[in-house]
Amino acid sequence: MAKDVWHTRKRNLSLNNHEYKNQGTQLNSKHKVGSFKEYMRSIFKRAVDASLPEISRSKSCTKVLWKPMIFLCCLVGFCYQTGSFLEYYWSFPTITFVENSNPFDIIFPAITFCSNNQISRQVYCKKNGSSCQFEENRKLFCKKYPRYCYIPNKIYTGVPSDEDIHERMITISWEDAVEGTSNENLIDDCYKEDDENKTICSIRRFPLVLKANNPSFCFTVDSQMNEPYATDDIYPNTFAYYILMRTYPEDYFFYDDEVLIYAAVHNRKHLVNPYTEGVTLKGGYRYSFFASMREDIRLPFPYKTNCTDYIGLWRKNKGTGPLSEQACIEYCKLRKLKSNDMCIDEFTWYAPHQEMLCSFGDTSATNKMIKDCHRECQPACLEQKYEAQYEEVEFGSRLCRKHDEPCKVSFIHVRVSFRRFRLSRHTVQPKYKSIEVFSYIGGYMGMWLGISLLSIFDLLESCFNLLRYPLEKKYKLKKGKYVKSLIIV
User: Fold this and answer.
1) 54's torsion region: left (phi>0), alpha (psi -120 to 50) or beta?
2) What is the DSSP string of 73-141?
3) Distance separating alpha carbons of residues 19 and 29, to the nearest angstrom
4) Hey, is 333 helix, strand or coil?
5) Which residues pair with residue 260 across a beta bridge?
6) Separation in Å, CA 137 to CA 130, 140, 146, 450, 468
7) Which residues of 98-128 are buried (b: 16+ CB within 10 A; e: fewer)?
8) Contact assessment for residue 462 and residue 99, using Cβ atoms and an 8 Å cutoff
9) What is 373-406 written as a DSSP string?
10) Using CA atoms, how far apart are residues 411 and 149, in angstroms rounded to an integer?
11) What's the pTM?
12) Nearest-CA neighbor of 263 among 180, 186, 172, 358?
């Protein structure tokens, strides 16, 4: 009995040992790793791209070599063209779209008027210490100075002497301009209206520098200077400005000066100098202005326009400061000259200011100042510039006598119409958007490689598996040795 039990245990042990040996053999075959060539073929056979399985099945060494070479050349071409395109894209190119329209609703501008007479004759002669000459005989005075006798009951017979005239030609002072400016309002009447509504204009007085770098004070209609929270007034293009101005020829300091008024239509948030950027209106004429606007919309950095939000800075500075690149340059020059206690020359025209002015013909801004200001200032992100064409019609006042020429030049009628208003909008936009970049690269991929995104991901997977081959081989060999050691034990 004991002998039978011993034989049974021996037989079972023999069977178990045989099973372990078979299992070890199976594990060893499972973890057996073939050559890299066979592994590559097995990977490429499953590839989506048709060229890869074909290469893997080919037994010709020539075909196996030259097809990958062709693929490699196409890959280099694809990378080169894609890199060139991305380099151009990352330079942030732009394109400008121009849109012309005749809108019904428009943003109303401001209008600035400046008299050619910068100093009131009466105010100057009444000032203490003046050496004006007075004529007691009014008839002789009016015969010699007919322009000064426009209003018979208000004839002022004081005339600046030669010494006064010479002094006024060389003396530049804002104090003199403030004291010598006429108390009379240049704008006698102003309103804007259409068939249904009428609105009275608001008129403000600002210091400006006119011809020969002389100080003066001008009048602006509907200005928004120093009003940082003011909003644009939108009116239908049927509205028009109606302005009646008095030239006051009897109050001109220089008798021979022509009776003129300088006018400019501009953005309400800043001032322009009508003497340099406006038109000249003659006394005794009627003018019809037809306003239009050009609007430039630019892009900030990193685009080449590298614009500055001047409107945001204008609001931050309580409604003051430049609104364009050129105005920024002039404002920069003004600040630098002021900080160096230098006078303001005739080529620095930022307005408004009441700084010390240089004599006519003198320059103060240095080349370094001007160069630094050009570097400091950039184009505006939003720039609105008004343009105006005008028609001039001469008229004779019915209230004037036939030969009363001074009377005939005493008034100027101005109508600013918007019925021909034309908006020219220049919008700078990126030349390429992100979705377009994706499309361009996809086109290059199809042209050079003839593959899709699916093929790209499949190729990446194949390359990943090939790179993983050495690690996988090392791991499987190590695992196979470990199983053998267990069986032997």
Assistant:
1) alpha
2) HHHHHHHHHHHHHHHHHTT--EEEEEEEE--SEEE--EEEEEES--SBHHHHHHSTT---EE-S-HHHH
3) 15
4) helix
5) 282
6) 21, 6, 13, 104, 116
7) eeeeeeeebbbbbbbbbbbbbbbbbbbbeee
8) no
9) HHHH---BSEEEEEEEEEEEEE---TTS-TT-HH
10) 16
11) 0.76
12) 186
User: Per the structure block, which two tokens stand in for 375?
Assistant: 């570097």
| φ, ψ for residue 243, nearest 5 deg | -130, 130
Could you say which residues of the chain have pLDDT below 50?
1-3, 5-6, 9-10, 13, 15-33, 48, 482-484, 486, 489
Please report which helix (H) or strand (E) contains residue 321, including its range. Answer: none
Q: Give the pair of three-digit tokens for residue 421.
A: 């208003």
Q: Please return the burial class of 131, using the count of CB atoms within 10 Å of its CB with bins 0-12, 13-18 and 19+.
A: exposed
d(CA 64, CA 74): 16
Q: What are the residues whose beta carbons fall under 8 Å from the beta carbon of 310, sequence distance 6 or more? A: 321, 322, 323, 324, 328, 380, 381, 382
Q: Are 281 and 287 in contact (CB under 8 A)?
A: yes
**Separation between Cα atoms, residue 248 and residue 244, nearest integer Å:** 13
In sequence order, what are the residues at sequence separation of 6 or more whose Cβ sits closer than 8 angstroms to the Cβ of residue 438?
Answer: none
The amino acid present at 357, given as its one-letter code, is: L
Residue the block writes with tokens 């390359």: 463
Nearest to 228 by CA among 111, 314, 353, 331: 314
d(CA 341, CA 377): 22
Longest dimension (CA), the chain: 171
Helix axes of 36-45 and 453-488: crossing angle, nearest 10 degrees:
140
Handedness of CA 334, 371, 376, 275 (dihedral sign): positive
Output the pLDDT for position 434: 81
Residue 16's pLDDT is 46
160, 168 contact by CB (below 8 A): yes
Residue 277 three-state SS: helix
Q: What is the pLDDT of residue 118?
A: 80
Distance CA 349, CA 283 (A): 26
pLDDT for 312-323, tens place per residue?
A: 999 999 999 999
Per-residue tokens: 310: 């001047």
> Which residue type occupies 239?
F
CA-derived radius of gyration, the chain: 44
Instruction: Give bridge partners of residue 263 from the DSSP assignment.
Output: 113, 279
Spatial separation of the C-alpha atoms in residues 392 and 19, rounded to whole Å: 117
Q: What is the pLDDT of residue 381?
A: 96
Q: Residue 95: what pLDDT? A: 93
At 179, list the tokens: 């004291």
CA dist., res. 289 & res. 113, Å (int): 14
In angstroms, the CA 252 to CA 263 distance is 18
For residues 250 and 230, what is the distance between their CA atoms, to the nearest angstrom?
39
Task: Report the amino acid identity of residue 397.
Answer: S
